[in-house]
What we know:
Oligomer: homodimer
Number of strands of chain A: 13
Distance between the termini of chain A: 45 Å
Order of helices and strands of chain A: HHHEEEEEEEEEEEEE
Largest interface: A-B, 36 and 35 residues
Helix content of chain A: 10-25%
CATH class of the largest domain in chain A: Mainly Beta
Structural class of chain A: alpha+beta
CATH architecture of the largest domain in chain A: Ribbon
Amino acid sequence: MRSLTEKQKRVLDFLISFTEKNGFPPTVREIGEHFGFLWSAARTHLKALERKGVIRLNRARSRGIEIPGLRPAQALRVPVAGRIRAGNPVLALEEIGDQIVVDRSLFSTEGAFSLRIVGDSMVDAGILDGDYVIVRPQESLENGEIGVVLLGDEATVKRVFFEEGAVVLRPENRHMPIMKYPPDEVRMAGKVIGVIRKI
Amino acid sequence: MRSLTEKQKRVLDFLISFTEKNGFPPTVREIGEHFGFLWSAARTHLKALERKGVIRLNRARSRGIEIPGLRPAQALRVPVAGRIRAGNPVLALEEIGDQIVVDRSLFSTEGAFSLRIVGDSMVDAGILDGDYVIVRPQESLENGEIGVVLLGDEATVKRVFFEEGAVVLRPENRHMPIMKYPPDEVRMAGKVIGVIRKI
DNA sequence: AGTTTAGCTATACAAATGTATAGTAGTAAT
DNA sequence: ATTACTACTATACATTTGTATAGCTAAACT
Lengths: 199, 199
């Protein structure tokens, strides 16, 4: 494949960023408008890019530009739960207000959900008030992992240890007390696999 | 809003699943083909759904069905810089190894980039070793903000204060010393606007 | 000097897609 | 029974979008 000209590179970059932003490729006229020229010029660029093998033009459909190297769904959509209800057998996420997009290469779990942290109980683990935690739903935790635990209908994020006859919930905050519960009073909702903070 | 009929629900479900799968909504003819009827029937359904307030029909563009609540692709791709060079007038990101996808509703800045944190100098601000910080490029910082600072070609994340004749870089770690530099030895690369951690 | 190529304007036309209207049949509500 | 609505067929037409062709200019190449 012959190398691209500067202009062709810029057009290709626009195709990629437009597609990633909108989820679908631009029309020839949108390309022209963006660069300030007519669609026929855009069309010529597209045909040059196709001739050089970096895109494919899918006739017989509008917005039919295909970019082989472009990984399509790099984004995973995660619901932000306002409440979690301990349904049976599965947990029910309630008051889903929003969805946030996370990177599949970082958080690949289908079915993951998110919670907004309220309070300072985990500051020593780098989880601050207002942070989003990404949670992989699972019914059990390893000793010492940070997880989402249900106490009745209350969901809380703590570091979890298992002792004989007790589940120990340890806040990561020197000023807060460790709590112990009988195993039948707590239920694991999932493991915290990530943190996202907006400053 | 009046409730939807069974058929209208099925059409709406198809709109949603098609859009999530493909990234863009179907055409009226694709809807008709899927259900086995003509496009004019699909069109009537769409108008009924619009009348009932669950979708909007964006005239003046093809595939113009908008489903509120279903946001399109909210993904912003952010490069992860391995090095930052203090070019003039702009900074040069070097050794870009990867790109991560972040949520536009959280981090909307075009031109943002990301750095991988090495070390524990910011643990008390909830920024741990291995975290990604999202950075909005800017040449100056407000007093007390967390920013990316260039000392020569070395990039470091610190909380920044300005005193007379000195720039103060304060690590968020009790065991590390505060550093002061003459203003002409440091250069601001950007403000830390977010943190992403994979556990 | 002549030729090719990139990069554009201008315009025409074709195909895809959206929109509207007329009509039929069935169902539900008043 | 009448009205309104759903759910479709059939068809016409408007708009958007893709494609092609004929230029024109500048730069690069032979």
